[in-house]
Structure formats: structure tokens, C-alpha cells
Amino acid sequence: MRVLGVDPGLTRCGVGVVEGVAGRPLTMLGVGVVRTPADTGLGHRLVVIEQGIEQWLDAHRPECVAVERVFSQHNVRTVMGTAQASAIALLCASRRGIPVALHTPSEVKAAVTGSGRAEKAQVGAMVTRLLRLDAPPKPADAADALALAICHIWRAPAQNRLQQAVALHASKASNSSKGRIA
User: What pTM was estimated for this model as a whole?
Assistant: First the structure.
């Protein structure tokens, strides 16, 4: 499975591509950051993020895009910018028919480090180890994007089995209710 991880942000939007399957060594195919100047208008910044994500999608052709789920923070302005950048990633992938998965920061930290409360340095260190890199990707947004992709690769098989079981249960329940006389 090839996954593009996106750590959304208006100033720095981390992107990273990881390929592999759960239980086997993973391979980093690329990592970077789409940057926008803070003194530029919002519309222009969103266009730059869109163009950057489109370039990553063209270059790496991922099977899935994993985006950090926006969570509540005290700084509404930061949340809004993150949500807007997140929406751009969702739009770009959806426009191409690429499935999108959302993962919370604590899910990603737990998947990569074993603790949902891990610090950024711990996430960077584990991403470095898991992908057999010489040094942690910089800035932290880039490492976070790789962590999102790793998290999705490891969690997707279990999530798919769960979704299949739920669908099968719903189908059986629907079929058994059709046989009843009203």
C-alpha cells in the first residue's frame, strides 16, 4: 500500500509518502513541506497548498491519503487554518477518487510510539527508526506526515476487517427482517 500522509497547516503543510504493508519493513518514497508565506492572502495560500498536494499526488500516485483530523484547540485561528489546509487535502484526493482516512494526533502517536501522549521528538525518533532513515525529517511537520502514513498502513487492515464485519452484520440483519410478516 502506498500512502500520502498530510499534516495540514497554512504556513507549513507536511507531506510524506510511505509504501509497505503491516508487519513488514516500510519504505519512505518522499517527504517534504508545502510552504506558504504568512503575509499572503488566505485564498492565495490555499491555492499554493492545493498545487503542492496535486504535485505530490502526480509524482507518487498514492492508493490512499491519510490526513490528520483537526481537533479542538484554544487558538481558533490556528484551528481554522489547519481545517482549511485539511479540506484542501481532502478535496484533492477526493477529486481523483483516492480514498481519504482521517487520524487523530493521539492515534498517530500511539501507532508510531506506543503512547498517545508522545512528544514531537519521540514521533520523529520513531519515524526515523521505522523508516531506517539517517536522521529525523525536518521540520516536525514532515515527520508528522510520515507518521500519519505509517499509522494508516498499520491500522488500515484492521479497520477494513471491522468495516466488512459491520457491513456483513447489517446485511444479515436486513435480510432476516425481510422474511418477517408485518
Answer: 0.87
